[in-house]
Amino acid sequence: MSAASVRVVTPADSGAWLRMRLALWPSGSEAEHREDIERFLTGDAPEPLAVLVAEDRQGRLVGFAELSIRGYAEGCRSTRVAYLEGWFVEPEARRRGVGRALIAAAEEWGRAQGCDEFASDADWDNEVSAAAHRAAGFTDVGLVRCFRKDL
Ligand SMILES: CC(C)(COP(=O)(O)OP(=O)(O)OC[C@H]1O[C@@H](n2cnc3c(N)ncnc32)[C@H](O)[C@@H]1OP(=O)(O)O)[C@@H](O)C(=O)NCCC(=O)NCCS
Question: Could you tell which of 89, 121, 144 is best to mutate to test the pocket of ligand 1, judged by most ligand atoms within 8 Å of the CB?
Fold first, then answer.
């Protein structure tokens, strides 16, 4: 039996989703994450398009994946690429296949959206993420440096 079952997020998951979002993206404030969650659940957010959560056998949420479809993704040939915008598993639930289960469900979602490519990214120094991406069947397609300036 797998370590967790994966399903679509519901409004009852808001608290756990918020807790995990804060852990994955600590640069966002709690208020910002709360607003993003509310906008998604009321259908007002252009992105993400779908959110999957992983539930352990006790019914506790231990991971999530946020998904979108991008018109362009590095290394891809198609113009509707299923995209992994966020991928997180609670530290105590890691290395038990929960991450893989989220990716498998995300792939099914992408196929159902008519996509035939799935892409993602990670910070250049996040070696755990890179290893987990490769284990889930992704291949490296390059390292990108990002810049900005005020206009
Ligand atoms: C990346 C993450 C989602 C993986 O979740 P997970 O539930 O641990 O993943 P799985 O148990 O399905 O692991 C799948 C495979 O990935 C690789 N892997 C995962 N964690 C690893 C680690 N710490 N070191 C080396 N390989 C690792 C292994 O090959 C593993 O298979 P194995 O356990 O049979 O050896 C999780 O580590 C996480 O939330 N990290 C912090 C947030 C993050 O960096 N997210 C990605 C942002 S781009």
Answer: 89
